[in-house]
Amino acid sequence: MSSEGDAKNKGAEATDKQGARDTAEVFVISVAAEMSGLHAQTLRTYDRIGLVTPRRTSGGGRRYTWRDVDRLREISRLSQEDGVNLAGIKEIIRLTRENDRLRAELAAERASNRELRERIAEGSSVPPGRELVHVPRSSAVVMWEPRRLRNRRRSVR
């Protein structure tokens, strides 16, 4: 796979067969550079500053997945077309990952909530530790004391 056309055809085949690009397929740095339209030295720089983290061989060679190539293309687009500097791109990537993580967490919580509501509606018991409890609001202030101090005060009285 030495040309961009061969790489694109290979990617199209993987997409057609599986519905998503194969992340097990990896490319050496020269192929990934050609596919992303960047110079190999640029890929090394992006790896060094943490924008893209390719897999490594036992000898230390970089191996880029389709996901890495897509990210390189996005970095190039942000930099060239939108004028975002590398620090900004790094922050965009971090925030995108965090957003994805939070969306997945929200979806899981919504599914759990839906399951609990269905159980309650059916009249079945709620698992221990998952009860819905009303907590009244209070403006009282409670001073916390370590247990040993409380015990000393009780013994003095």
TrEMBL record:
<feature type="coiled-coil region">
    <location>
        <begin position="92"/>
        <end position="119"/>
    </location>
</feature>
<dbReference type="InterPro" id="IPR047057">
    <property type="entry name" value="MerR_fam"/>
</dbReference>
<dbReference type="InterPro" id="IPR009061">
    <property type="entry name" value="DNA-bd_dom_put_sf"/>
</dbReference>
<dbReference type="Pfam" id="PF13411">
    <property type="entry name" value="MerR_1"/>
</dbReference>
<keyword id="KW-0238">DNA-binding</keyword>
<keyword id="KW-0175">Coiled coil</keyword>
<feature type="domain" description="HTH merR-type">
    <location>
        <begin position="26"/>
        <end position="95"/>
    </location>
</feature>
<protein>
    <submittedName>
        <fullName>MerR family transcriptional regulator/heat shock protein HspR</fullName>
    </submittedName>
</protein>
<dbReference type="InterPro" id="IPR000551">
    <property type="entry name" value="MerR-type_HTH_dom"/>
</dbReference>
